[in-house]
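Let us work through a complete example step by step.
Step 1: write down the sequence.
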Amino acid sequence: MNVLTRKIPDYYYEKSNLIRLVLFTAFFDLIFINIYKPFSSLTWYPVSEFKFFLFSSLVILTGLLTVAISRVIMYFYTKKHALNCIEYGIWIVLEIFFLSTFYTVYSCVLRPEREVMETFWEASENTSLILLLPYAILMLYFSWRDKEQKLQMLGEMKGDAGGANVISFRDEKGELRLSIKHSNLL
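Step 2: predict the structure and record it as tokens.
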């Protein structure tokens, strides 16, 4: 099976992970933009640091709302359809597109002399860099946590039934559904 058409793991769109993604992204971006001031962002608008914090917070809140709406739609969509890697990538590109569009509108309202398409392309580049870093961090964390849970379940399967050789089958919630005792196992 082609890597790009492979279905993404279910933990990418579990409700708790989607909430973590939205909150972590907003928190990360707020700190990242206001502490590190990437892309010479202080020179975009000649304002005080406090006003910069307010403006960046407003932009980040809009981004938070956009990502939250996107992930709520994803949550309900994936209840009936599984996403593959290409579809998930397109989903993220669309998030970046909408966030860039919102930023362009903000920017052109505050500074009407700015060229719209230039502002949009700059916004797209910056949004991609700012959004993809927390997404990558969280996807690695979710993957690690999923592997840890699977290893723990394997350890429990091996240790079930007082040391007897037992194969345990659990559902997605981790509840025991079936145990098979076998004397020549392992």
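Step 3: interpret the result. Residues 116-159 form the longest helix (44 residues).
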